[in-house]
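Lab notes, practical 5.
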Amino acid sequence: MTTQENKQIRMAQALSERAHDLLISLNFAQKQIGYIHTFDISYGENIAQRTMLEVEIAAAAKRQESSTTHHKYIAKASKHLHSVIEEAIAKQLHDLDTIYHEVVGIQDSVPAIFDILAVRSASVGRLEPLVNDLSWLGRELVSLVNLPQYRKKNSKGTSIKVDTPALALRYLGLENLQMVIPTMAVRHWMPHATEPFGLMKRKMRELSMSTAIAAKELAPFFGVKEQHAFTLGMLLELGKIALVRLYLRTFERVWQAKVQIARDKKQKDLHTALMELSPDPLFLRNLLLEHSADISRKLIEKMELRYLPFNAVMEEYSQTYLPKSHKKIADPLPLTQVMQKAYGYAQMLVLKDSQLIEDDEAEILLSHLELTEEMRQQLAKCAFHNLQLTIL
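Output from the prediction step:
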């Protein structure tokens, strides 16, 4: 491996970790930059140094002052609590049925709809009974078509209100539904609340949307169907959705049990320490880095999609999810290449939105992703925050 390739991999890994940090919170991502000293890595040549942010200096000072006996006791309580949580999560990850149906809440009609949308014989009539089974999807579709920008007008210029899912389906048409339904499904599966990580749900949605749109734009360069690329791009973060839900739920259950025991045994110090604990951002971030791609793979396989060729792609994608992974796929499938490039590009976009990536870093990442000038120009034209639907 050349020095240049090594530099690219290291930078891509640092930026991938930073994007995961940002999913937790902007504050956490800023602290991690100050703490990990990403920019101190030596690549054998000088790279632009960035001045330490005020927030990073403050965080470093705070860490210093926190090493009191009380804080050490809290840290010890947190470590013990999280060792129990880690074990509980490891057990739950073996029960894929529960994760699929109960933790994420995937109903069988949704993969069936994805399959219908993937075939030439697709029709609104075939979708209708399945959508009627999913009351949340029917409501979402009706709400969408009644937005002011999509409302049709009659000959008198009065807006026509659509009030049934069947009408909404016909109004949108199959081409729009190929994007709308995967987007609505993933939005429905997102955790309803992610406290104390308030903006996490929004960041995950932005990442999914940007990945799917980038994948759709890159698909023609690799001879891949745009609908396949968009749908899989939306589904890539299923593992994160499952893990965030699982961690927050498990933390609450284990924490409450520990608090009850400490109260019953009158362990005042332990009870006080536990009352100061909240979900750990570093634990959750590491959980996402280590397991999310593999959980996505398993959940997509469990969908048993008949007409969407995703299983072999997810096998390749999950093996090479982290840039530092030395598992190089010799001849990756075209759709795998689209996913890798689209996801890396989407990570760059979310980092840019939060001003957490410098221009030189972005350039190194784009080179690592092997995005040609033509691909970059195509992606640069895109709007990544909405679907840009055309309703006739």
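Observations recorded by the TA: Residues 3 and 43 are 7 Å apart (CA to CA). The two ends are 53 Å apart (CA to CA).
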